[in-house]
Each structure stands twice: as structure tokens, then as C-alpha cells.
């Protein structure tokens, strides 16, 4: 009987230790998730742009100050997909998205910030690394 109860208490201690270890691991995991430093993919990046500046259809009725897209320098046509920025500048959705992917997330005309710096930095990160690898291989060849 004695041996059995001793074994039982040992088992209990083991279980407690195991549980504690599990808890610590869980805590570390949630901490990792919270300090999320994963880079932003192009899809997520474009989604964030969309959330901040929803796509609208250009209509001559809602005539804006400038009737042409300053990225491709062509006039807006009725029903074209455009984005109206907070700075009141309007661009084709495709033109602006291309611009935002190639340059910093600012208005092409007045440099007004469209997305916060940390989001842009997270988006740029993997591309910079990729660029480094490519240049490394270019050197090797
Ligand atoms: Zn355009
Ligand atoms: Zn602007």
C-alpha cells in the first residue's frame, strides 16, 4: 500500500512538472504570436491599402479637382476604378497600387502618407532580403 501511494505521489509531482512546462511553453508561444514580426505579403499590403482607401468608380458627376491620373497622365473615364486619397488626390486603382508597391506608401503628388511606416517596413523587409540574395547570385555568376 505504502509503495502504491508513494508511486501515486511521484506521478502527481511528475504531472505537475509536466503541466508547468506546458504552461511555460504556452506562454512563450503566445508571446511569440503577440510580438508578430512576420513580413506582410503583397496581398495583405494591398488589402490594407483597400481598407484605408476603398476603391470607387469614377463618375463625371462627382467631378474632382483633377480629372486625370497623375501616374499614367490619362484622363479618368466613366466607371474606371479609382482611389480617392485623404489628401483629395485621385488615381487609378491599378496605377496607385503599382506605385505603392514600388515606392513608399505616400501619395505620388503630395507625399501624404497613406499607410503607417511600420506596415511599409514589414512589407519591404522580405523584398530587401530577396534583393540581396539576387545580387549575391549575380556576383557568383
Ligand atoms: Zn492611371
Ligand atoms: Zn496627395
Automatic annotation (TrEMBL):
Query: Does the record carry Amino-acid biosynthesis as a key word?
Result: no
Q: Which GO MF terms does the UniProt record name? A: zinc ion binding
Q: Which domain of life is it from?
A: Eukaryota
| Protein name, UniProt field | RING-type domain-containing protein
Which controlled-vocabulary keywords does the entry list?
Metal-binding, Zinc, Zinc-finger
- Residue ranges annotated for the RING-type domain, each copy included: 69-111
The record ties this protein, via SUPFAM superfamilies, to: RING/U-box (SSF57850)
Amino acid at each position: 500500500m505504502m509503495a502504491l501511494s508513494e508511486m501515486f505521489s511521484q506521478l502527481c509531482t511528475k504531472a505537475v512538472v509536466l503541466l508547468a512546462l506546458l504552461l511555460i511553453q504556452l506562454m512563450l508561444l503566445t508571446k511569440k504570436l503577440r510580438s508578430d514580426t512576420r513580413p506582410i505579403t503583397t496581398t495583405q499590403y494591398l488589402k490594407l491599402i483597400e481598407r484605408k482607401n476603398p476603391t470607387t468608380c469614377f463618375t463625371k458627376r462627382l467631378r474632382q479637382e483633377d480629372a486625370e491620373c497623375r501616374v499614367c497622365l490619362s484622363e479618368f473615364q466613366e466607371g474606371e476604378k479609382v482611389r480617392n486619397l485623404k489628401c483629395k488626390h485621385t488615381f487609378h486603382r491599378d496605377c496607385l497600387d503599382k506605385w505603392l508597391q514600388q515606392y513608399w506608401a505616400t501619395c505620388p503628388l503630395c507625399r501624404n502618407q497613406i499607410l503607417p511606416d511600420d506596415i511599409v517596413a514589414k512589407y519591404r523587409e522580405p523584398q530587401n532580403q530577396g534583393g540581396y540574395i539576387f545580387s549575391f547570385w549575380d556576383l557568383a555568376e
